[in-house]
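Practice problem: predict the structure.
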Amino acid sequence: MGGFKKFLLRGNLIELAVAVVIGAAFTGLVTAFVNAFSGPLIALVGGQPNFNSLAFTINGTRFPYGVFLTAAVSFLIVAAVVYFLVVLPTSKLLERLVKAEEATEQQCPHCLSDIPLMATRCRFCTAELTPA
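Answer:
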């Protein structure tokens, strides 16, 4: 029982559970966006908000390819929304954070120890250095 309790309280499992809940909430938000804005925009261009009624029949068998087209367009819209509203801003923010973190140490070329950038002599091997 102790191992099971340890498994449940592990950080990775809790983070994964939170990510699933946030993902489900975000899916609802993006689906509402697609239904409220993208569907009417598609209707303006294509004449109908979804393509579910499109189908063809071969030997009495109906192939509703419109269902696939509607799902594909919805997927592309969801992917674009996720990219432009989540991925792109996050990567820009991470770039800024990485640029803000400047190195304060360098490696000594002789002993490979970390020393301050402005050091003129290595504190470990006493080799003379040029400050960075």
